[in-house]
Write a structure and sequence with these properties.
Helix content is 57%, strand content 3%. The chain contains 7 helices and 4 strands, in the order H-H-E-E-E-E-H-H-H-H-H. The strands form 2 sheets. The chain has a two-stranded antiparallel sheet with strand order 1-4. The longest helix has 32 residues. It is globular, with a radius of gyration of 20 Å.
C-alpha cells in the first residue's frame, strides 16, 4: 500500500540521491551546494518547534530557543524533510517497527531531521488531542472509519517520537523530558484504546462478512492490516499492549 502513496517514490529517490551526494562531498562542496539551494526560494523549509525546544548545531542537543522560528535553506534541511516524510509514509502504511531507524547522530543532517521530527510530533499530538476518539469516546458504527484514520496518524506520531526519545541521542531539560514522556504515554494509550475499538467492531462484523460489498471488505482488510502493524510494534518492543476494555485512565 505504501508504494501507492503520493510521495513514497519521490522522497525515497530523493533520500537515495541526496545522501549519496552528501557522502561524496567535502565542506567546500557542501557550502557550494547550500549556496545554490539558497538561490531558490522553493527549497526553503519553514519550521516551528514546540515551545521550549531548540537544537544546538554544534552539540546536537536540545536547548532553549534563542530566536523566532523561520525559513531554513540548505542540503541538510532538504534531506531532513525527505527523511521525515518518507518515514511517515513507512510508519503509516507498512508494519515496519522502526521507520526512522537511520536517524542517528553520525548521519548527515541529523540535527535538522530531529528539529523537523519535533515539529511533526507536536503538530500531530496537538491535533489529535482535539478529537473525541483520542479522549476514549469510541462509539462504533461510523466512528470506526475515523478511528482507522486516527490510528494511522497515531502510528506516525509515535514513530516520529522513537528517535527523539533515545537517551543516548539527545539530552533534554527536565521540562523537555516531561513534555516528551507525557506525549509518548498519551499517544500509546490512545493508540491502544482506538485499536481495541477497531477490534470490537471487526468482531461484530464477522458474522456478516460474506455479504459485505467490495468497499466494506476493503475497509475490513485495512483495519486488519493496521492491527497487524501494531502487533509488529509490540513484538519489536516499540508499542505498549493494552487489554480490551481498558481506558486511558486505567494505567
Amino acid at each position: 500500500m505504501a508504494r501507492r502513496v503520493v510521495g513514497f517514490l519521490e522522497y525515497g529517490n530523493a533520500l537515495d540521491y541526496l545522501d549519496r551526494l552528501a557522502s561524496m562531498s567535502d565542506k567546500e562542496d557542501l557550502a557550494a551546494i547550500d549556496s545554490i539551494i539558497a538561490d531558490h526560494d522553493e527549497f526553503a523549509i519553514f519550521r516551528e518547534l514546540p515551545q521550549g525546544f531548540e537544537i544546538n548545531e554544534e552539540s546536537k542537543t536540545l536547548d532553549r530557543p534563542s530566536g523566532l522560528p523561520g525559513a531554513k535553506q540548505g542540503l541538510a534541511w532538504l534531506i531532513g524533510l525527505a527523511r521525515l516524510e518518507f518515514g511517515a509514509i513507512v510508519s503509516g502504511y507498512t508494519d515496519h517497527p522502526k521507520p526512522y531507524q537511520y536517524v542517528q547522530p553520525d548521519r548527515y543532517a541529523y540535527a535538522e531531521t530531529m528539529q523537523l521530527l519535533l515539529e511533526g510530533v507536536d503538530g500531530h499530538y496537538s491535533a489529535l488531542q482535539q478529537t473525541d476518539l483520542f479522549q476514549n469516546r469510541f462509539r462504533g458504527g461510523d466512528d470506526v472509519k475515523v478511528a482507522l484514520t486516527l490510528s494511522r496518524r497515531l502510528r506516525i506520531a509515535r514513530a516520529m517520537l522513537q528517535p527523539i526519545m533515545q537517551p543516548e541521542r539527545s539530552r533534554y531539560s527536565s521540562q523537555q523530558a516531561s513534555q516528551l514522556q507525557r506525549a509518548a504515554l498519551d499517544l500509546d494509550k490512545a493508540q491502544a484504546s482506538i485499536n481495541n475499538g477497531i477490534r470490537e467492531w471487526l468482531a461484530s462484523t464477522q458474522q456478516s462478512s460474506r455479504s459485505t460489498d467490495g468497499f466494506r471488505r476493503e475497509f475490513v482488510n485495512a483495519c486488519g492490516q493496521m492491527l497487524a502493524a501494531e502487533q509488529q510494534e509490540i513484538q519489536a518492543g516499540t508499542a505498549i499492549p493494552q487489554k480490551a476494555g481498558e481506558s486511558k485512565s486505567d494505567n
